[in-house]
Specification:
Elements lengths: L4 H11 L23 H9 L2 H7 L1 H4 L4 H23 L1 H5 L3 H4 L1 H4 L5 H30 L3 H18 L1 H27 L17 H16 L18 H30 L4 H12 L3 H35 L6 H21 L3 H31 L21 H14 L4 E4 L4 E5 L1 H5 L6 H16 L5 H9 L3 H9 L7
Antiparallel strand pairs: 1-2
Helix pairs in contact: 2-11, 2-13, 3-13, 5-12, 5-13, 9-10, 9-14, 9-15, 9-16, 9-17, 10-15, 10-16, 11-15, 14-15, 15-16, 17-18, 17-20, 18-20
């Protein structure tokens, strides 16, 4: 079988520092060079940073003690991680980015509905991430925020352009740098470091409302990783153990998320902290002169791969969206151009939003998570309970395949789930310290947000019932006729049907 220039470039990328050749196309089995052992550390670092620490501040702000905040956050994180871990198993089994696979449930063009939500989440999280770095470095070192923003966005873009292999290496290096320092901070806090005579908050205890709120925040935080995971597991060999991969993702993301939320809660309770980087600087400086500054620098450097993570997945989402409208060839040039566009939008947003704008964006991201929940329910039900992992991969790349341009089952299930969530919405504007929208059932629950749970159940159950009319036997007959040659031919070359 002849090898296209795109495939040859992808092989080169696996053996040295070169731009990744693949994006939204199928990863041939002979190029699946990733290792299962990399997944646990990769997703451990995904939550092992000061953004997750800031989630721990929420508990004490609601009157919840550090211990109860740790328990609520850990339980929520573990619940949300279940969904992202199951999504991760789709990568090696299909060799595709997450959102391409969603065409089976929503259709070649219908998937744009889910793409819009995921794109805003990727870019939005990076706006918040970059802003946190800007504010932290300005407070600790007095560095110009604009310079910080440009540098952070450029580094994230470069890592995303080089792609999968370099990003996995960057995550490994970042983990090796941050793990000993965060361990030191955690142990030091247990012995009272950083307090400087300040009395810890004494009015903290337990509240079911606060506990449920922290659980929901933790769960939705890791559910928001669902559109990412198979993007970074699709280079694993096809015969990778599904359950070992699920376990690796679950353990990695759950441990770090629980640790960081607990650390944040302790910082808020004992030091009355409100800024993660400032608090880390305070603790480090109390231990050794200059250690605080080192903690801040390493924390920021260790966070840069997270910026790249969002940029990379945003690139895959953008290319999928463009391809759903007009068929494209997923060349390295296309990935560079799309990352350039995404980075420009990101930088514009970061430099435009000041002060209260960031708090408003956080509110906006909560709303966007509502859009992701019905999607993850539909996708997982289809994968594990309806089609059970069997898909005609070349048919993802044409609107005239067996999945069609529009799949009403997935779209209807998505809309039903979203509609069921609305009465449970609880949207709070932190900037103005006021409620934006509170559904009648959320009001009865005193503001506890369980909309995401309602969306999961209604969308998943609706899709399962609607999918009973799918002719799975006919689909399997099509799948059984496909070969590796068919997959490469259709996923790498523009088809007439898609022009």
């Amino acid at each position: 079988m002849s090898v296209s220039p795109l495939s040859a470039h992808a092989v080169e990328a696996g053996s040295g520092l070169a731009i990744e050749g693949h994006s939204i196309d199928y990863i041939p089995e002979n190029e699946r060079h990733a290792k299962l052992s990399s997944q646990g550390p990769f997703w451990f670092l995904g939550n092992f940073h000061f953004f997750t620490i800031s989630i721990g501040f929420v508990g004490p702000s609601l009157g919840l003690s550090a211990l109860w905040t740790l328990l609520a956050g850990a339980l929520g994180i573990m619940f949300g991680t279940l969904f992202m871990a199951f999504h991760g198993s789709q990568g090696p089994e299909m060799g595709l980015p997450q959102m391409i696979q969603s065409r089976a449930q929503f259709g070649y063009r219908g998937v744009i509905l889910a793409l819009m939500a995921t794109m805003f989440v990727f870019v939005g999280f990076n706006v918040v991430n970059t802003s946190l770095i800007m504010n932290g470095l300005e407070h600790v070192f007095g560095i110009d925020p604009t310079l910080v923003a440009v540098t952070v966005v450029m580094i994230g873009a470069l890592l995303a352009i080089y792609g999968h292999d370099l990003m996995h290496k960057a995550f490994k290096w970042a983990l090796l740098a941050t793990l000993p320092l965060y361990t030191l901070v955690t142990v030091a806090l247990m012995f009272g470091a950083g307090r400087d005579g300040a009395a810890p908050a004494s009015d903290l205890g337990f509240s079911w409302i606060a506990f449920a709120t922290l659980f929901a925040i933790g769960a939705s935080y890791n559910i928001s990783y669902a559109p990412y995971v198979s993007d970074y597991s699709r280079y694993l060999p096809k015969n990778t153990s599904r359950w070992k991969l699920i376990a690796a993702v679950f353990i990695g993301a759950s441990l770090s998320g629980s640790w960081m939320i607990g650390l944040g809660a302790w910082l808020a309770q004992e030091l009355r902290a409100a800024d993660a980087l400032v608090a880390l600087n305070q603790v480090g400086s109390s231990l050794l002169p200059g250690l605080g500054n080192l903690l801040v620098v390493v924390s920021v450097l260790g966070f840069l791969p997270i910026i790249a993570l969002n940029t990379y997945s945003a690139m895959l989402t953008l290319l999928t969206g463009v391809d759903s409208i007009k068929k494209i060839t997923p060349t390295p040039r296309a990935r560079v151009l799309s990352i350039g566009v995404i980075s420009t939008v990101l930088l514009t947003c970061v430099l435009s939003l000041k002060g209260d704008g960031i708090a408003l964006l956080n509110t906006f991201l909560v709303l966007l998570l509502y859009f992701l929940v019905p999607w993850t329910a539909v996708n997982l039900v289809d994968y594990f309970f309806v089609r059970k992992g069997r898909y005609a991969i070349p048919h993802f790349f044409t609107p005239k395949g067996i999945y069609g341009a529009w799949q009403l089952r997935g779209i209807v299930a998505y809309l039903l789930g979203f509609a069921a969530m609305v009465p449970f919405f609880y949207i709070f504007d932190a900037a103005a310290n006021q409620e934006v929208f509170v559904g009648p059932l959320a009001r009865l629950l005193e503001g506890v947000d369980i909309a995401w749970l309602v969306g999961l159940v209604v969308s998943g159950l609706s899709y399962y019932l609607l999918s009973r009319s799918i002719d799975l036997a006919a689909e399997r007959r099509v799948i059984d006729t496909l070969s590796e040659r068919d997959m490469l031919a259709m996923t790498e070359q523009p088809s007439e049907a898609g022009r």
